[in-house]
Structure formats: C-alpha cells, structure tokens
What does this fold into?
Amino acid sequence: MRGDGDGWAKSDDGIRHWGKFGAAGLLLRAPAADGTPTVLLQHRAQWSHQGGTWALPGGARDSHESTVHAAIREAEEEAGIPGCELRVRAERVTANASSGWSYTTVIADAAGPLTTVPNGESTELRWVPEGEVSGLLLHPGFAASWPQLRSTPVRLLLDTANVLGSRPNGWWRDRAGATGELLAALAATLPRTIELPDGGFGWLPRIEAVLEGQARTVTAVDARVPVHVAAGSGDDELALLAGTELAMAAGGGIGHPAFGGVDQHLTAVVTADRGLRERLPETVVQLSPSTVLGWLD
It folds into this structure.
C-alpha cells in the first residue's frame, strides 16, 4: 500500500529527493559471534534510484509518522525485520535540502543478526562487519553520512560505588546485594550502541566494574560485566586501569580482547567524582552515572 509520503520533493534548483515529507532509514547493529558489531545493509535493486549500491533500509515518511516510526516500518517492509526485536538508541538528521526535505537516520540495536526477508527493492540483504562497510559500493547519500554514523569500540570502566550512590533507593541496607543487582541489570543492556559526548557513537560490548569496600564480595554476575576488585581505593584502581590502558596503546600494546585485539578504541570512565575525574588522562571519555542508569529505563 502506498503512503501519502510517496513522491518527489523538488528544490528550487530542480534537484529531487524521494519523500514528500522527508525520508528515514534504519541503521541496525547487531553483535557477531565474537561481539564485534555488524550492520544490516540493503543491496538496492537495479531498477531503483541509485540501483546496485548498498544502503540502509529506508524510504519516504508519511505525513502522520515520526521519523522513528517511518524507519521501523520501512525495515519491516524491505527486510522483514519486526519492530519488537529492535531497541532504538538515537536518531540523526543526515541530509537536508533547500526545499525543506530531510533524511533522518534512526540508530537501533538487535540482540543478534536477525533473519531477513527481502522485498522487490533489494537484490540482497546482508549483515556486514562494521569495519567492512566502507569497502562496498555505497549509495552516495549513505557514503556521505557513514563517517558520522559508524561506531568506535569503547572500553567502559564503571565507578560502581559512585553510580550506586547516585540513586537513593536504599542500596546502603545491602550494598553487596544492590551491587549485584546493578551489574546484572547493566549486563542485560549489552552489547549496545551508545552516544558519545562529541556527538559520535560507540560500540559497547561489555562494562568493567570496579568494586571496593563491602562490594568486594560480589563476583562477576555475567561475562558482559567483569569485575576488578580494588585492593584499596576504588578511585586508585580506576585511575590505574585508565592510565595503564592508554600507556599500552601509546606503546603499541596488544588490543583489548573485548574488541578482538583491535587497538583503535576509546577508554571511558563512568563517575561523578570530581577528584577522580581530575586524575584521568585527557583522552579518557567521561560519562555521568545518569547516562548509564538511563540505559536501564
């Protein structure tokens, strides 16, 4: 069934863009068997606009639709991806025209590579390792936006005590139990795409939790959330881990195993502790506890 958005929007200079009310596409990531991200791409049918190139499932937005709804609907129509299997993480306007037309890329994750069912607009649907996307013949619009959409692997260190203490939910009555519950809840959100403070995106396969005090008795509840037990101060352990990581990277050390040995990744620390933040190297990304706790909603 054709929607009321199907049709061309024409700029004053005569350039046409598909979608009377704009267009939207879905950038869907899912972890491969080794935890690294793959991206669902559509090999466009030859008869279509820019046929033969690779792009995201997407299309015209109808007048009554949000960009998220349009992107998910298009993914269902073109790839057979059920919306209930997706977790939307963000959206970005990745193209604008003088006519007012715009293209919005909706970023979402799936728990694993989903089975796809192509329609007549595709010659193939493929889960492509993220590092191999730029090697394909991409649709010009997607090629232009891909640098701002691709993710960087992130090693995340969690100041567990600080995050736990940011919620007045009675955690102090059973600190070890509350810590275990927090780590289990965070594990359930992984792996995932995260938004970075600079506007880019990161891929987070796991969270490393630093434990101190009464929480030292907590063991790893999930392989996605390994723990570091601090011999003394948790702040000292976090500063050491962040500093050692960067020193290894500067010296050409072996890449972190969470990323399959890839050296190019970001280190991030989750804390609101001002003293700890001042001790971290400048290149470490700093995230607030509210950012991580927001993933639990």
